[in-house]
Write a structure and sequence with these properties.
Elements (H helix, E strand, L loop, with lengths): L24 H9 L7 H12 L4 H11 L3 H10 L11 E6 L2 H5 L2 H12 L5 E2 L5 E6 L11 E3 L2 E3 L4 H18 L6
Parallel strand pairs: 1-3
Antiparallel strand pairs: 1-4, 2-3, 4-5
């Protein structure tokens, strides 16, 4: 290092231990039900995701601390299974089936059109928190291929146009209601 360069020092501001407080009551209830069950990690993560809609980082840290697991083990289980999500989902979860029947009937073109329309890729959410886009291996509705599911509503025999129209209708509905979406 040349003598004339000045070395910068990092400055840190101690903000306390964010986990010093007990976990939130709703998380504590989940953890208490499974405290003495070392093989219940998947169940715990499923319940946390069912409550929050995803797996928030802080809740995973509390889970590791409260159940006595290394944080790496909690994350290892959560990242192994694709049913777990680490970001808040959009208000409308748009799922496109990628099963054989749907694929043969053009589901990839539907995915491409929805990505373009929403400005996101698979497994992402729009910045306004309104939409999330996912693909699913099979919806089990092969006779309706290609299939699109928005939240709990299934649409069958979809085309590029009908898929984009469904999304556009949801956008309009949200704009008419004037609801603000927060992620």
């Amino acid at each position: 290092m040349p003598l004339h360069t000045k070395k910068k020092h990092r400055q840190y501001l101690y903000q306390g231990d964010p986990l010093a407080a007990p976990p939130p009551p709703e998380l504590a209830a989940i953890l208490d039900r499974h405290r003495d069950q070392p093989d219940a990690m998947i169940t715990v993560l499923e319940e946390i995701q069912a409550h929050y809609g995803y797996l928030p980082q802080r809740q995973l840290q509390y889970t590791a601390r409260e159940l006595g697991f290394p944080l790496s083990r909690v994350y290892g289980v959560a990242t192994f299974y694709n049913l777990f999500h680490f970001t808040a989902p959009g208000r409308y979860m748009v799922r496109v089936c990628r099963g054989t029947a749907c694929h043969v009937n053009g589901s990839q073109k539907i995915i491409d059109a929805l990505e373009k329309n929403l400005g996101i890729h698979q497994d992402e959410s729009t910045l306004d928190g309104l939409f999330s886009l996912q693909t699913v291996a099979c919806m089990g509705a092969c006779s309706l291929a290609p299939v699109l599911v928005v939240n709990d509503h299934t649409y069958g025999r979809m085309t590029i146009e009908s898929s984009v129209n469904e999304v556009e209708n949801l956008k309009k509905e949200n704009a008419v209601n004037g609801e603000e979406v927060t992620a």
